[in-house]
Here is the input.
Amino acid sequence: MHNLHVAIIMDGNGRWAQRRGLARTAGHVAGAAAVRAVVESAASRGVRALSLYAFSADNWRRPGAEVAGLMRLLQRYLLTQTSRCLEQRVRLSVIGRRDRLGARLVRAIEHAERATAGCTGLHLRLAVDYSAQHSILQAARLAGEDTGPADFQRLLDQVDHAGDGAGAVDLLIRTGSEQRLSDFLLWECAYAELYFTERMWPDFGPADLQAALESYASRQRRFGALAATAR
Ligand code: IPE
Ligand code: IPE
Ligand code: MG
Here is the structure.
């Protein structure tokens, strides 16, 4: 499982809470707790990069109170988890737009990124105010006629504040039953293996990550060519 870029669409927090008679925000709190265990598990399994969809550009369309709760949780996550990241040698980056985030959140993002910049373990990428279509449009404006896929990826990383980036996604996991991409890493997922589970995100744990990685290991990736045995 070394050298993998895993991406997760962490969906189902709201339904998890509603089934328990709780407010949607309680689902987001439980979801944030689930993130910690999955990050540790990914780090210990040698995953190279883990991209987590935390807040999409379209999530601004939700009620103000829910959005404010999510922003507070993100801020708290960054403030409390930076030291844990350092302990586990996790490098933390935030991808997506920054111009619509609050000044305090942007400062917390910059602090977490600076503090963990030298970490050489798992690269944890939180997608916040992220839209793949928006990123692709921005990168396309910067691209020239000679821009090839690798250069275009670099432009995307620049637009996304992704630094040296993580490149193509190997395995995309979506929790919460829906089977769609919801504008996440569309360029990077060109040849990603897709894994959908009915588990709601707050219930997703290390054993579920293990199951997804095992499913990935059993697949044959061909990238348009023929399988080795058919050559
Ligand atoms: C995912 O859970 C978290 C975010 C989108 C921020 P949802 O809030 O979308 O949960 P459901 O899909 O309504 O259950
Ligand atoms: C995708 O989930 C975004 C995140 C998980 C952050 P949504 O719940 O927003 O996606 P849709 O609306 O079901 O497509
Ligand atoms: Mg959802």
Summary: The mean pLDDT is 96. The first strand starts at residue 5 and ends at 9.
